[in-house]
Amino acid sequence: MRNLVWGLLCFVLLNACKKDSGCGYSDQKIVAPVAEQQAVKDYLTSNNINSALKDSTGFYYEILNTGDGTGTPGLCSQVELNYTGQLTSGHVFDQANTAFTLGATIEGLRKGLPLIKKGGHIKLYIPPTLAYGNTDVKDNSGTVVIPANSILIFDITMNSFY
């Protein structure tokens, strides 16, 4: 299932990404609609999550540990992390220890991971537009694992990047 989610993620972004010099990834400058931002805020409020901060693109985040070292990952960086991804219902759709190129993932992760350094720990609350939008994500058997228009919650520890 993890490979399916990351494979779909890479396919969508590689086909939608504007190419530039270097590694080929560029800032998409996507901002979630106000209604989606409000839905994330409502989720946080109803779950007494008061420490989350709002990014200008519309996702919310809690930095649990900033990490150490210098620098943060860029779009061309290979990131190695442990994560759990879940829906607002609490259903865990994926968890793994994995590595990927930051630019080849959903916008919410592309913007959220550079907020921490190596060893950092962050929770991201990502509205649909910065995740999979109005597209269902299915596993190999055709079962929907992430319904369209879902708010995603990621609990991430970044082990390394280069």
Automatic annotation (TrEMBL):
<dbReference type="Pfam" id="PF00254">
    <property type="entry name" value="FKBP_C"/>
</dbReference>
<comment type="similarity">
    <text>Belongs to the FKBP-type PPIase family.</text>
</comment>
<dbReference type="InterPro" id="IPR046357">
    <property type="entry name" value="PPIase_dom_sf"/>
</dbReference>
<feature type="domain" description="PPIase FKBP-type">
    <location>
        <begin position="76"/>
        <end position="162"/>
    </location>
</feature>
<dbReference type="InterPro" id="IPR001179">
    <property type="entry name" value="PPIase_FKBP_dom"/>
</dbReference>
<protein>
    <recommendedName>
        <fullName>Peptidyl-prolyl cis-trans isomerase</fullName>
        <ecNumber>5.2.1.8</ecNumber>
    </recommendedName>
</protein>
<keyword id="KW-0697">Rotamase</keyword>
<keyword id="KW-0413">Isomerase</keyword>
